[in-house]
Amino acid sequence: MKILDYLIKENIPFHSLKYYKQAFTHSSYANEAQNKLEDYERLEFMGDAVLQLFVSEYLFKSYPDYPEGELTTLRSKLVREESLAKFARELRLEELIYLGVGEEKSGGRDRDSVLCDIFESFVGALYLDCGKKEVIKILHKTIFKHVDDVFHSEEIIDYKTKLQELIQADDRRSVTYKLIAETGPANAPEFTINVTLDGMVLGTGKGTSKKKAEQQSAKDALLKMAKTKEKD
Hints:
mainly alpha; Ribonuclease iii, N-terminal Endonuclease Domain, Chain A; Double Stranded RNA Binding Domain; 3 strands; 10% strand
Protein backbone atom coordinates (compact mmCIF):
# COMPACT_ATOMS: atom_id res chain seq x y z
CA MET A 1 0.00 0.00 0.00
CA LYS A 2 1.29 3.47 -0.84
CA ILE A 3 1.66 6.02 1.92
CA LEU A 4 -0.65 8.48 0.19
CA ASP A 5 -3.38 5.86 -0.13
CA TYR A 6 -2.98 4.94 3.52
CA LEU A 7 -3.30 8.53 4.73
CA ILE A 8 -6.42 9.05 2.65
CA LYS A 9 -7.95 5.76 3.85
CA GLU A 10 -7.30 6.70 7.48
CA ASN A 11 -8.77 10.19 6.93
CA ILE A 12 -5.56 11.88 8.04
CA PRO A 13 -5.60 15.54 6.92
CA PHE A 14 -1.92 15.61 5.98
CA HIS A 15 -0.14 18.69 4.70
CA SER A 16 3.29 17.40 3.73
CA LEU A 17 4.03 13.88 2.51
CA LYS A 18 7.75 14.31 3.18
CA TYR A 19 7.26 13.72 6.91
CA TYR A 20 5.56 10.38 6.31
CA LYS A 21 8.02 9.23 3.65
CA GLN A 22 10.83 9.88 6.11
CA ALA A 23 8.87 8.20 8.92
CA PHE A 24 8.75 4.93 6.98
CA THR A 25 12.31 4.98 5.60
CA HIS A 26 14.51 2.46 7.37
CA SER A 27 18.24 3.21 7.54
CA SER A 28 18.97 0.16 5.35
CA TYR A 29 16.86 1.64 2.55
CA ALA A 30 18.35 5.12 2.98
CA ASN A 31 21.88 3.67 2.75
CA GLU A 32 21.09 1.80 -0.46
CA ALA A 33 19.32 4.67 -2.19
CA GLN A 34 21.20 6.53 -4.91
CA ASN A 35 19.74 9.84 -3.81
CA LYS A 36 20.43 10.94 -0.26
CA LEU A 37 17.44 10.09 1.94
CA GLU A 38 16.74 10.74 5.60
CA ASP A 39 15.75 7.73 7.66
CA TYR A 40 13.17 7.72 10.44
CA GLU A 41 15.49 8.06 13.44
CA ARG A 42 14.95 11.79 14.10
CA LEU A 43 11.17 11.38 13.82
CA GLU A 44 11.42 8.36 16.12
CA PHE A 45 13.03 10.63 18.72
CA MET A 46 10.18 13.12 18.36
CA GLY A 47 7.51 10.41 18.49
CA ASP A 48 8.95 8.91 21.64
CA ALA A 49 8.68 12.28 23.42
CA VAL A 50 5.14 12.85 22.11
CA LEU A 51 4.01 9.42 23.31
CA GLN A 52 5.48 9.95 26.77
CA LEU A 53 3.59 13.24 27.13
CA PHE A 54 0.20 12.29 25.66
CA VAL A 55 0.05 8.84 27.25
CA SER A 56 0.98 10.38 30.60
CA GLU A 57 -1.73 13.02 30.19
CA TYR A 58 -4.35 10.40 29.30
CA LEU A 59 -3.48 8.17 32.26
CA PHE A 60 -3.33 11.09 34.68
CA LYS A 61 -6.86 12.20 33.73
CA SER A 62 -8.39 8.73 33.29
CA TYR A 63 -7.09 7.17 36.52
CA PRO A 64 -7.30 9.90 39.20
CA ASP A 65 -7.06 7.37 42.05
CA TYR A 66 -3.88 5.67 40.82
CA PRO A 67 -0.66 6.60 42.68
CA GLU A 68 2.44 7.71 40.80
CA GLY A 69 4.05 4.27 40.91
CA GLU A 70 1.13 2.51 39.23
CA LEU A 71 0.81 5.24 36.60
CA THR A 72 4.51 4.90 35.80
CA THR A 73 4.25 1.11 35.51
CA LEU A 74 1.20 1.33 33.28
CA ARG A 75 2.80 3.91 31.00
CA SER A 76 5.97 1.88 30.68
CA LYS A 77 3.97 -1.19 29.65
CA LEU A 78 2.03 0.77 27.05
CA VAL A 79 5.09 2.29 25.37
CA ARG A 80 7.34 -0.75 25.57
CA GLU A 81 8.77 -2.26 22.39
CA GLU A 82 6.42 -5.25 22.34
CA SER A 83 3.37 -3.07 22.90
CA LEU A 84 4.24 -0.47 20.26
CA ALA A 85 5.05 -3.22 17.75
CA LYS A 86 1.59 -4.67 18.39
CA PHE A 87 -0.04 -1.28 17.85
CA ALA A 88 1.96 -0.80 14.63
CA ARG A 89 0.56 -4.10 13.35
CA GLU A 90 -2.97 -3.03 14.26
CA LEU A 91 -2.48 0.02 12.03
CA ARG A 92 -0.82 -2.15 9.35
CA LEU A 93 2.19 0.15 9.32
CA GLU A 94 4.48 -2.72 8.31
CA GLU A 95 3.07 -2.50 4.79
CA LEU A 96 4.45 1.03 4.38
CA ILE A 97 8.08 0.53 5.44
CA TYR A 98 10.88 1.17 2.94
CA LEU A 99 13.49 -1.51 3.67
CA GLY A 100 16.85 -2.35 2.15
CA VAL A 101 17.23 -5.69 0.38
CA GLY A 102 19.12 -7.37 3.21
CA GLU A 103 16.76 -6.10 5.90
CA GLU A 104 13.76 -7.28 3.90
CA LYS A 105 15.22 -10.77 3.46
CA SER A 106 16.07 -11.08 7.16
CA GLY A 107 12.48 -10.40 8.21
CA GLY A 108 12.84 -6.77 9.24
CA ARG A 109 9.28 -5.97 8.20
CA ASP A 110 7.91 -8.09 11.05
CA ARG A 111 10.63 -7.44 13.63
CA ASP A 112 9.35 -5.91 16.87
CA SER A 113 12.26 -3.49 17.17
CA VAL A 114 11.61 -2.09 13.68
CA LEU A 115 7.84 -1.87 14.16
CA CYS A 116 8.28 -0.13 17.50
CA ASP A 117 10.53 2.46 15.86
CA ILE A 118 8.07 2.87 12.99
CA PHE A 119 5.16 3.50 15.34
CA GLU A 120 7.17 6.20 17.12
CA SER A 121 8.35 7.82 13.89
CA PHE A 122 4.81 7.79 12.48
CA VAL A 123 3.53 9.53 15.62
CA GLY A 124 6.37 12.03 15.35
CA ALA A 125 5.51 12.78 11.71
CA LEU A 126 1.81 13.07 12.50
CA TYR A 127 2.47 15.49 15.35
CA LEU A 128 4.75 17.74 13.29
CA ASP A 129 2.41 17.72 10.29
CA CYS A 130 -1.03 17.78 11.90
CA GLY A 131 -0.63 18.52 15.60
CA LYS A 132 -1.97 16.97 18.79
CA LYS A 133 -5.57 16.38 17.66
CA GLU A 134 -4.68 13.84 14.96
CA VAL A 135 -2.14 12.09 17.20
CA ILE A 136 -4.80 11.63 19.87
CA LYS A 137 -7.12 10.05 17.28
CA ILE A 138 -4.46 7.46 16.45
CA LEU A 139 -3.76 6.81 20.12
CA HIS A 140 -7.46 6.16 20.74
CA LYS A 141 -7.37 3.56 17.95
CA THR A 142 -4.37 1.82 19.49
CA ILE A 143 -2.86 2.56 22.90
CA PHE A 144 -5.80 4.00 24.79
CA LYS A 145 -8.21 1.18 23.97
CA HIS A 146 -5.72 -1.36 25.34
CA VAL A 147 -4.94 0.32 28.66
CA ASP A 148 -6.92 -2.07 30.84
CA ASP A 149 -5.81 -5.32 29.20
CA VAL A 150 -2.16 -4.21 29.10
CA PHE A 151 -2.29 -3.25 32.78
CA HIS A 152 -3.52 -6.70 33.76
CA SER A 153 -1.34 -8.61 31.30
CA GLU A 154 1.18 -10.93 32.92
CA GLU A 155 3.12 -11.42 29.71
CA ILE A 156 4.42 -7.85 29.71
CA ILE A 157 6.60 -7.34 32.77
CA ASP A 158 8.61 -4.16 33.14
CA TYR A 159 11.71 -5.46 34.90
CA LYS A 160 13.44 -2.06 34.73
CA THR A 161 10.69 -0.41 36.76
CA LYS A 162 10.60 -3.30 39.25
CA LEU A 163 14.35 -3.06 39.75
CA GLN A 164 14.32 0.70 40.22
CA GLU A 165 11.46 0.49 42.70
CA LEU A 166 13.34 -2.16 44.67
CA ILE A 167 16.51 -0.07 44.78
CA GLN A 168 14.63 3.07 45.80
CA ALA A 169 12.85 1.24 48.59
CA ASP A 170 16.07 1.61 50.60
CA ASP A 171 17.39 4.94 49.27
CA ARG A 172 17.06 7.38 46.36
CA ARG A 173 19.86 5.94 44.23
CA SER A 174 19.29 5.06 40.58
CA VAL A 175 20.67 2.24 38.48
CA THR A 176 22.36 2.88 35.16
CA TYR A 177 22.45 0.84 31.95
CA LYS A 178 25.65 0.55 29.92
CA LEU A 179 26.14 -0.98 26.48
CA ILE A 180 29.14 -3.29 26.65
CA ALA A 181 28.91 -5.11 23.31
CA GLU A 182 27.16 -5.01 19.96
CA THR A 183 27.57 -8.05 17.74
CA GLY A 184 26.07 -9.46 14.55
CA PRO A 185 25.28 -7.83 11.20
CA ALA A 186 23.74 -4.37 10.96
CA ASN A 187 20.35 -5.81 9.97
CA ALA A 188 20.25 -8.29 12.87
CA PRO A 189 22.35 -6.95 15.76
CA GLU A 190 22.56 -8.32 19.29
CA PHE A 191 23.21 -5.94 22.17
CA THR A 192 24.72 -6.80 25.55
CA ILE A 193 24.02 -4.39 28.40
CA ASN A 194 25.06 -4.24 32.06
CA VAL A 195 22.90 -2.67 34.74
CA THR A 196 25.02 -1.13 37.50
CA LEU A 197 24.63 0.59 40.85
CA ASP A 198 27.49 2.71 42.15
CA GLY A 199 29.85 1.01 39.71
CA MET A 200 28.85 -2.53 40.71
CA VAL A 201 27.35 -4.76 38.02
CA LEU A 202 23.97 -6.07 39.17
CA GLY A 203 23.00 -7.96 36.04
CA THR A 204 23.71 -8.55 32.35
CA GLY A 205 21.26 -9.00 29.50
CA LYS A 206 21.21 -9.55 25.75
CA GLY A 207 18.59 -8.63 23.16
CA THR A 208 17.93 -7.73 19.54
CA SER A 209 17.43 -4.11 20.64
CA LYS A 210 18.90 -1.99 23.42
CA LYS A 211 15.49 -1.80 25.10
CA LYS A 212 15.19 -5.59 25.20
CA ALA A 213 18.75 -5.98 26.47
CA GLU A 214 18.06 -3.47 29.25
CA GLN A 215 14.95 -5.39 30.29
CA GLN A 216 16.90 -8.65 30.33
CA SER A 217 19.71 -7.12 32.38
CA ALA A 218 17.17 -5.82 34.91
CA LYS A 219 15.54 -9.26 35.03
CA ASP A 220 18.95 -10.87 35.63
CA ALA A 221 19.64 -8.40 38.43
CA LEU A 222 16.30 -9.13 40.12
CA LEU A 223 16.89 -12.89 39.95
CA LYS A 224 20.37 -12.55 41.45
CA MET A 225 19.10 -10.27 44.22
CA ALA A 226 16.30 -12.73 45.02
CA LYS A 227 18.80 -15.62 45.30
CA THR A 228 21.05 -13.55 47.57
CA LYS A 229 18.08 -12.74 49.81
CA GLU A 230 17.14 -16.42 50.04
CA LYS A 231 20.67 -17.27 51.22
CA ASP A 232 20.47 -14.58 53.88
